[in-house]
From TrEMBL:
Stated name of the protein: 3-hydroxyacyl-CoA dehydrogenase
Catalytic activity annotation: a (3S)-3-hydroxyacyl-CoA + NAD(+) = a 3-oxoacyl-CoA + NADH + H(+)
Homology family: In the central section; belongs to the 3-hydroxyacyl-CoA dehydrogenase family.
The organism's taxonomic lineage, starting at the top: Bacteria, Bacillati, Actinomycetota, Actinomycetes, Micromonosporales
Record-annotated 3-hydroxyacyl-CoA dehydrogenase NAD binding domain positions: 326-505
């Protein structure tokens, strides 16, 4: 084993075989990457895996094949470097060595005199996609689940050739999108069709017979019957694209994510620098970032999203879940309509909406149909699937349509009396075992169910807007919610492809409680006399996805004021009620315009004469978060601090480079100063051991 290998590395073997291909006088060499597990444990590259690939390439070339191709095990090509070994690297020289090893092995495919092909049969991310880019040609399966260079989201850069090869293949605008923009937008993946249109793949093939068609296509290339033509890369726009990208990063991240800026520098290098010099610069950048706090926090956040999110703490045995064959939605407004589309697409069962009058019902169903039509127009949905969804979603003004529903969710006005009235009426209609779910953002699930005959079947099912984008689902256990109801809720959440977190029934649950405390602190500074622009920019050094006022505008001032009132009633000593926020909500005017404070809104404010500095606003906000998180953990709102971080990452877009919330508060000493102790053990999330 290499001296660099992690003790727990799951080695991806490069399995070599000869394949006879019709029309060729010599066999092809086919290398299959396989770590011995199914698709739930994807292929990765540690030192052992790179060594195995190196040996397979040597053996393949020694046999003088017609061509050499690399593919993956079923559903997975490779998802890149084995990240588990990174925290074990002892020094910068070892970090440089792991970068150089990957470059040396992959470069053999690029420099080979024998034609090389990547048959990308499944997920290809990070170093896996970089491996494919080193090959002379690439086929891509239409069934590949995910394609990406996600390193910047973790605090790294593509370190095995990606920053040098990709822009010279598909051009600097598209490369900047893949390497920087997509990772910073909730780690957005490319679909196979997108990747093919960009030019990352030379041909897109059907998944059913992908390997056979790939071998045929490769043989056509080798025989000269197929000519691959790639558009010339426009180099005149290179500097301008990177200048604009840097300005955008400055506006969004304010120098808070070193990896993004390193990636920009490497993309700049790729324009007219030879490949060896460019990859050496990747090695240096990688070595710098591997020992950064941002990477360690990014790895912690990545582990939460990839592992903890898939095994929710406290979820009951899934065998208790009841089948859901029909879904009812109370309400037909925007949120209800988004839910209807999501349930129909993911569960593939009838979904029926109700509202007070036919006009509202028609508007809600019409919204769903319009969204489906747009998906078809954009090529994201075939007409057959669209026709099926049209038939699944319906509406009515008569709630008796819920009589045979297994799962009914309400999305009505955020008022406890209104919601209690809805459930009291529905309990007389639905069958005894039907789950009653509330999408409340702050109200008590227990209080909502207390007067029902069967309160045990009421559960909180709190989505985040936009429903189709944000992956978090807060599942709230009321005081009398039983295990079967909870298990059904988690099963449905999984079918919806959401990451579910079990939350105790406490005011505003997790995300809204913390965001309200956070925004409340900022508005308290405004009320005291701090200029809006100072308060709005005070958190810039954290590199949050939105400034406070933009976040407030997204949430809606009226909603924020309402949730704030709920929390003020529960915790008056920590949650104030801002008269200025009420004024803004009543005005209906946008708070920010083109990322600048609306001067008309500023005129509405009544402020004091004790303004704070930006640093004071920032520290007050962080102190408030630390205090609130400690109280929530003491109250048992979630199982552990990791669940707080998971909620904030998935529900509020809290950056990976901060590790969520608690690692940052620990790193800066805020948690110990405010609460007397850390949230995480020393050594977690890159903290000093």
């Amino acid at each position: 084993m290499s001296a660099l290998a992690a003790p727990n590395e799951v080695v991806t073997r490069a399995l070599l075989r000869e394949v006879a291909v019709p029309g060729l006088d010599r066999p092809a060499a086919l290398i299959t990457l396989d770590n011995g597990f199914d698709h739930t444990k994807p292929n990765t590259f540690g030192p052992g895996g790179l060594t195995s690939l190196d040996e397979a390439i040597t053996a393949a070339l020694a046999a003088d094949p017609a061509f050499l191709a690399v593919t993956g095990k079923p559903y997975v090509f490779s998802v890149g470097a084995d990240l588990t070994g990174l925290p074990l690297l002892a020094d910068r020289e070892q970090a440089l060595e792991i970068g150089r090893l990957g470059h040396r092995v992959f470069a053999r495919l690029k420099e080979s005199s024998v034609p090389t092909f990547a048959f990308v049969n499944g997920a290809a991310m990070g170093g896996g996609l970089e491996l494919a880019l080193h090959c002379h040609y690439r086929t891509l399966s239409g069934g590949a689940a995910a394609l990406a260079l996600p390193e910047v989201s973790l605090g790294l850069v593509p370190g095995w050739g990606g920053t040098q090869l990709l822009p010279n293949l598909i051009g600097i605008p598209a490369a900047t999108q893949v390497i920087i923009q997509n990772p910073l937008m909730q780690n957005r993946m490319l679909k196979p069709k997108q990747a093919a249109e960009m030019g990352i793949a030379d041909v897109l093939l059907e998944p059913a017979d992908f390997l056979e068609r790939s071998l045929e296509w490769a043989a056509g290339v080798v025989r000269g019957q197929i000519t691959v033509v790639r558009p010339e890369v426009d180099r005149d726009m290179w500097a301008g694209v990177l200048y604009f990208a840097r300005q955008t990063l400055d506006q969004r991240l304010h120098n808070a994510v070193p990896a993004a800026y390193k990636a920009l520098d490497l993309l700049d290098t790729a324009k007219d620098t030879d490949f060896a010099t460019g990859t050496a610069a990747e090695d240096e950048a990688l070595a710098d970032l591997i020992f950064s706090e941002e990477l360690r926090s990014g790895l912690y956040a990545f582990d939460l999203v990839q592992r903890r999110a898939k095994r929710p703490a406290g979820a009951p045995d899934k065998s208790l879940a009841r089948p859901v064959t029909k879904v009812g939605i109370v309400g037909a407004g925007l949120m209800a309509s988004q839910l209807a589309l999501l349930f129909a697409r993911r569960l593939q069962v009838p979904v029926v909406m109700t509202d007070l009058d036919q006009a509202r019902v028609d508007k809600g169903v019409g919204y769903v149909h319009t969204q489906i039509e747009q998906q078809v127009t954009k090529g994201r949905m075939d007409k057959g699937t669209a026709a099926k969804l049209y038939g699944l979603v319906s509406g009515s003004v008569d709630k008796s349509v819920f009589a045979d529903a297994d799962f009914v969710i309400e999305a009505v006005f955020e008022d406890l009396a209104v919601k209690k009235q809805v459930w009291a009426e529905l309990e007389k209609i639905v069958k005894p075992e039907a789950v009653l779910a509330t999408n409340t953002s702050s109200l008590s699930v227990t209080a909502m169910a207390e007067e029902l005959e069967h309160p045990e079947r009421v559960v909180g099912f709190h989505f985040f807007n936009p429903v189709a984008v944000l992956p978090l689902l807060e599942i709230v256990r009321g005081g009398r919610t039983d295990d079967a109801t909870l298990a059904t809720a988690f099963a449905v959440g999984k079918q919806l492809r959401k990451s579910s977190v079990l939350v105790k029934d406490a005011p505003a649950f997790v995300v809204n409680r913390l965001l309200t405390r956070f925004l409340g602190t900022v508005f308290a500074a405004v009320d005291a006399g701090t200029p809006l622009d100072v308060a709005n920019s005070a958190l810039d050094p954290l590199g949050l996805p939105m400034r406070p006022l933009a976040l407030l505008q997204l949430v809606g001032p009226a909603v924020a004021y309402h949730v704030g009132g709920t929390l003020h009633a529960a915790f008056p000593d920590r949650f104030g009620v801002s008269e200025n926020l009420r004024r803004i909500a009543d005005s209906g005017q946008p708070i920010v315009v083109d990322d600048e404070v609306n001067p008309e809104v500023a005129k509405l404010l009544v402020v004091g004469d004790a303004p704070l500095t930006a640093e004071q606003v920032r520290q007050n906000a962080l102190d408030a978060l630390a205090q609130e998180i400690r109280l929530m953990l003491d109250e048992g709102v979630v199982a552990e601090a990791q669940d707080i971080d998971l909620c904030m990452i998935l529900g509020a877009g809290w950056p990976f480079h901060l590790g969520g919330v608690t690692p940052y508060l620990d790193r800066t000493g805020t948690s110990e100063r405010v609460t007397g102790r850390r949230f995480l053990p020393r050594g977690a999330a890159g903290l000093p051991a």
